[in-house]
Amino acid sequence: MTIRTALLQGAKLLEEASVTAPRLTAEVLLAHAAGCDRTWLFAHATDELKEVWWIHFGRYLHERTKGKPTQYITGKQEFYGRDFRVTPDVLIPRPETEHLIEAALEVPAESIPAKSILDMGTGSGAIAVTLALELNTPVTACDISAPALRIAAANARTLNAPVHFVHCNWGAPFSSQTFDLIVSNPPYVGRHEQLPIEVRDHEPGAALWADDDGLAAYRQLIPDALRLLRSGGRLILEIGSTQAAAVSAMLSACSAVEIRKDLAGLPRVVIARRP
Ligand code: GLN
Questions:
Q1: Measuring from atom 10 of ligand 1, which residue has the nearest CA?
Q2: Nearest alpha-carbon partner for 172 in 144, 136, 133
Q3: What ligand 1 atom has the least distance to the C-alpha of 186?
Q4: Cα–Cα distances in Å, from 263 out to 12, 63, 97, 176, 249?
Q5: pLDDT tens sequence across 129-175
Q6: Atom of ligand 1 nearest to the CA of 238
Q7: 88, 153 Cβ separation under 8 angstroms
Q8: Measured in angstroms, how far is the CA atom of residue 187 from the centroid of ligand 1?
Q9: Nearest CA, atom 5, ligand 1
Q10: Whether 139 contacts 117, CB under 8 Å
């Protein structure tokens, strides 16, 4: 069995199971099994597959056809140009969330004079670590999930990012007017929304679901955030595509509430300034 044949067979199996991007997924899974990158596979297409690779590859294909996301099989996801470790304890970072990073990086430097930043519900730590590295400043990150914080801390360590982690529910333990910038990608999926099996059955429910209307987390975190922000500080939130009006209404105490769209043209990021 050559690498080429293995990839063909793997892609066929995935396609039959209606997995999206079957060829690419087969390549990613075989590269993971062989401990190499995809480029190496292309350069060695006619090499014989080692038996141990075949065994791992077979297991990964099986897991993927059963709905396990590729990122939980390989244990990683790229976000804003860096590889983050992910396990089923954390949400897989999404490309949409990079818009939140872009919005945070646009905040004028004079608005974050002390560069005091909080990420609420950090999950894998993707947002906190990225901001710490891009802005070259310490970031505080909190989460209610201890297993998620362990992954986030491992990511901060591996990527050498100065992030201080706190185990808590939203902003409870922090004192008023501490932060210049607060960011969050909270759970925002409503109870009746349909999610792909990969998401619904494999990603952590606590990072996805937020009561009936998907707004429960905003109801908790927005008052906390407004208490913790310094005057003039910014709050930047990821939102579900139908939540712009409802979340803006919760921010009526703020000046200059702005909504940004994602690449699909859907409302995705809310930026608010505390007066
Ligand atoms: N964007 C995620 C999804 O559509 C949801 C993430 C979240 O609730 N913050 O699956």
A1: 199
A2: 144
A3: 9
A4: 30, 30, 11, 35, 24
A5: 999 999 999 999 999 999 999 999 999 999 999 999 999 999 989 99
A6: 9
A7: no
A8: 7
A9: 208
A10: yes
